[in-house]
Write a structure and sequence with these properties.
This protein has 114 residues and is of the alpha+beta class. It contains three helices and five strands. Helices cover 31% and strands 27% of the residues.
Length: 114
């Protein structure tokens, strides 16, 4: 389990969630991009919480190890989502040709006069 510090809040999450979140936050910062990520954690008061993090180039987040015996909630959806986004940023899909005939023939758009 790891202890996440973000702004003036603290949350306890499983190691996998903390590790991928820091990797994703670092990549978003390097790309001058951002995202929001919601996950389940143990809050400062010991209760299970849902925390939403804004990740961008101004994000200050720290993950520290802890020796607590508390079992943090799992975050399988978030742990799947962030690596997928990381892969898309690192290896974007190739561009594809536009196949809409109206776009390629220069037809009139909304508000254009004939």
């Amino acid at each position: 389990m790891k202890h996440l510090s973000y702004a003036d809040k603290t949350a306890f999450v499983d190691d996998e969630t903390a590790d991928v979140m820091l990797e994703y936050a670092g990549l978003l910062a390097a790309e001058h991009s951002g995202d929001t990520v919601s996950l389940r954690a143990i809050g400062q008061d010991g209760n299970e919480v849902e925390a939403t993090f804004v990740l961008n180039m101004a994000t200050n987040i720290v993950a520290e190890s802890t020796n607590s015996d508390i079992e943090p909630p799992a975050n399988p959806v978030v742990v799947e989502y962030m690596p997928e986004k990381i892969a898309m940023i690192r290896n974007p899909p190739p561009a594809r040709a536009i196949e809409d005939p109206d776009l390629t023939t220069g037809s009139l758009g909304f508000g254009d006069e004939p």
